[in-house]
Specification:
CATH superfamily of the largest domain: P-loop containing nucleotide triphosphate hydrolases
Largest sheet: 7 strands, parallel
Strand content: 5-15%
Distance between the termini: 37 Å
CATH class of the largest domain: Alpha Beta
Order of helices and strands: HHHEHEHEHEHEHHEHEHHHH
Number of domains: 2
Number of strands: 7
Structural class: alpha/beta
CATH topology of the largest domain: Rossmann fold
Radius of gyration: 22 Å
Strand order of the largest sheet: 3-2-4-1-5-6-7
Number of helices: 14
CATH architecture of the largest domain: 3-Layer(aba) Sandwich
Bound molecules: guanosine-5'-diphosphate, magnesium ion
Length: about 325
């Protein structure tokens, strides 16, 4: 326990920031205590989630977007969430060397998150790290994640603006664009537009968006980019700013923040309810015996659970 850490964080010390993030990722008592005292200082930063298949150019795009926002004088944090583990052999993506001038910029903070963290779930950990960066005073937080599974989709949901990256040449575009991904995108980026087929992918996305039976108030634009050359980045940055203006004008940002706060309440209550229920179960004298009987198949786990934790509510967690 380091009582100085929070004080140094509040003075703007980036080493303290990095250490606090580690505490939060690991779910240490100090991490929890810090989140609690920081919470009221959150809600100012803009968050942008960037998702898409591996190799689509997300990191290159993030670097370019970051450079564009730096021209506006905005302070930036970049989080790269890479859920791939060494066991799946896909961990190299997080190691990509970032633009040198971003790395040397004192108003840019770059962080890789490779672990699932101890908070329970990738999105929960990312949400907590976002809070820390927000409280530290960054204007914009860019979150890059590989769009492979539900957990990663949840990560971009933490952000108020979601960019979905597609590329030409991944077979049939319609097959490659999953329905769930269409719903979360506030802007679609067809990167590698220097490769053939970019117009076709853009048209397919526009067609799929037009098929939405409940068209949203915000019409997601489709922007073509060549991230390696910086082509289309100004237009993309313009669309992101337009989305910010839309969120502000319609009080949607306010609503999004409110929803995140209630989601946090739900998560905290859930963790506490689990903690106190498990304490009650472990304190029961018949726990060890019932556990043994379940293990041997002598009674079924439902029967044992009924005896250990008599309960007449629904077996689900829901907060209205
Ligand atoms: N031809 C072309 N290559 C690109 C473009 N954007 C990125 N790349 C390259 O694609 C590869 C993967 O890029 P990266 O940003 O690491 O992709 P990520 O896995 O989505 O983060 C790198 O070799 C990039 O240089 C682009 O617009 N056109
Ligand atoms: Mg990457």
């Amino acid at each position: 326990m380091d009582p100085e850490l929070l004080a140094r964080f509040e003075r703007g010390d980036r080493r303290a920031l990095a250490r606090l993030i580690t505490h939060v990722e690991d779910g240490t008592p100090q991490g929890r205590a810090a989140l609690r005292s920081l919470y009221r200082a959150t809600g100012k930063a803009r968050s942008i989630g960037i998702t898409g298949p591996p190799g689509a150019g997300k990191s290159t795009l993030v670097d370019q977007l970051a450079a564009a926002f730096r021209k506006d004088g905005l302070k930036l944090a970049i989080i790269c969430v890479d859920p791939s583990s060494p066991f799946t052999g896909g961990a190299i993506l997080a190691d990509r060397v970032r633009m040198k001038h971003l790395q040397e910029d004192p108003d840019v903070f770059i962080r890789s998150m490779a672990s699932r963290g101890a908070l329970g779930g990738l999105s929960r950990t990312t949400g907590a790290v976002l809070k820390v960066l927000d409280a530290f005073g960054f204007d914009v937080i860019l979150i890059e994640t590989v769009g492979v599974g539900q957990g990663e989709v949840e990560v971009v949901r933490e952000a108020e603006t979601c960019l979905v990256i597609e590329v030409p040449g991944l077979g049939d575009g319609i097959q490659a664009i999953k329905a769930g991904i269409l719903e979360i995108g506030h802007a679609f980026v067809v990167n590698k537009a220097d490769n053939p087929g970019a117009d076709r992918v853009s048209e397919q996305i526009l067609t799929m968006l037009s098929l939405n039976p409940n068209p949203p108030e915000w019409q997601p634009p489709v922007v073509q980019t060549v991230a390696t050359r910086g082509t289309g980045i100004d237009e993309l940055a313009r669309q992101v700013r337009a989305h910010w203006a839309h969120l502000d004008a319609k009080s949607l940002r306010h609503r999004h923040l409110g929803q995140r706060r209630v989601a946090d309440l739900s998560d905290i209550l859930k963790a506490r309810a689990l903690g106190s229920a498990s304490q009650r179960v472990l304190a029961r004298p018949d726990f060890t015996e019932l556990r043994r009987q379940v293990e041997l198949g002598q009674i079924d786990p439902y029967e044992a659970a009924d005896r250990l934790l008599p309960f007449d509510g629904p077996d689900e967690w829901r907060l209205p």
